Amino acid sequence: MCKKRPAEGPGLSKILAFCALALKKRYIWVWIDTCCIDKKSSAELSEAINSMFKWYQSAEECVVYLSDLSLGEEEAGAEEFAAKFSASSWFTRGWTLQELLAPKQLTFYDTDWKELGGKDLLRDLISATTCINKRFIARDSMPPLHARFATVAARMSWVAMRKTSRSEDMAYCLLGLFDVNMPLLYGEGAEKAFLRLQTEIISKSDDETIFAWTANIPRSGMLATSPRFFAESGSIQKAPKYGYSELRYWMTNKGMALQIPDDEWPADLSHTAAAVISIPLHIERGPQGALGIQIHRQNTRNIWRRTMCQSLIPVPNSKGRHTHLFSKEEKPSHVIYIPASLGGLSVQELSNL
């Protein structure tokens, strides 16, 4: 308890109202982000951010207070309620994504602490507002799915259009959703934080949808530099495992290494300065067949770039073989390197590479 009563204000009012609600529901302990994290302590802040998804997941019930939503005294019609509910700024913030997805029971309240309903009841409206499949929102959906079962690309798309006060938090707010831990380095910038997050994801996941991003830039490294690059990737699904093996890739001090078998390697490539290879990804096929990305080598060095970033490209599969790079048997192969990013270069600088 604080020895000195805090000054009156909306923060204190929210705390007191939340505690009154908890007592009414016969809870003994509550946790509220307004005052339960000492943000002056970097160690405590780091522990809280790395643990918050788990805390929400383990809570008996979580409460969302929509301070910008007031339904008034009269009962709102369905259309009016849907419009006001969907317009709340709560749905635009990066940190609230895990508040929505982690709890097993989540109840919404308006600015007057009038109960609006739980996320199971409101799942259709929440799904329409967030573009998140309702199977990941409500535990009574058929079949219900934990949010971590969604593809990497889908989870990234959920946060693509959200915002955070500090730029690095666009990456840090996703730690729990991807079940990864990493130190917080405020000041490193949004791009570096997001690249570190993807590197952690790659170290424990073989989900190739992490490469299924698009952006209006001519060239790039292998990884996206912002969650916004996944804005159009929400519907991308992994292909069935049958008959496929995974793309082999790993991080090195040269960037990301990709292993390509000899029989997928163009015969004259070693003698050509400029070269292009299309790499199919292990994702569901599009109308034109397998989809993938294109990489380009501008000179004889073994450093490549991703090109044609505006969209995923069809990868020809005329021989009817697996739409992937590798069979179950080990084969002689080439290893090529692609930078994780091109260091935050502008579109003009990228065009000159």
Word description of this protein:
The protein is α+β, with helices and mostly antiparallel strands. It contains nine helices and eleven strands. Strand 5 (249-252) and strand 6 form a beta hairpin. 27% of the residues are buried. Residues 318-329 and 345-353 have low confidence and may be disordered.
First-to-last CA distance: 59 Å
| Number of separate helices | 9
Question: Quaternary status of these chains?
Answer: single chain
Fraction of residues in β-strands: 5-15%
Poorly predicted spans: 318-329, 345-353
Using only CA atoms, what is the Rg? Answer: 24 Å
Helix content: 10-25%
Shape: elongated
Strand-pairing-aware structural class: alpha+beta
Please summarize the sheet with the most strands: 5 strands, antiparallel
Give the mean pLDDT.
83
Summarize the structure.
By secondary structure, the protein is an alpha+beta fold. It contains nine helices and eleven strands. Helices cover 25% and strands 14% of the residues.
How is the secondary structure organized here?
Layout lengths: L9 H15 L17 H17 L3 E4 L12 H9 L9 H6 L4 E4 L5 E4 L4 H8 L21 H8 L9 H4 L17 H15 L14 E2 L28 E4 L2 E7 L13 E6 L9 E8 L7 E3 L5 E3 L17 E6 L8 H5 L2
Parallel strand pairs: 1-2
Antiparallel strand pairs: 2-3, 4-9, 5-6, 6-11, 7-8, 8-9, 8-10
Question: What key phrases describe this protein's structure?
Answer:
elongated, 3-stranded mixed β-sheet, 25% helix, 11 strands, alpha+beta, 14% strand, 5-stranded antiparallel β-sheet, 9 helices
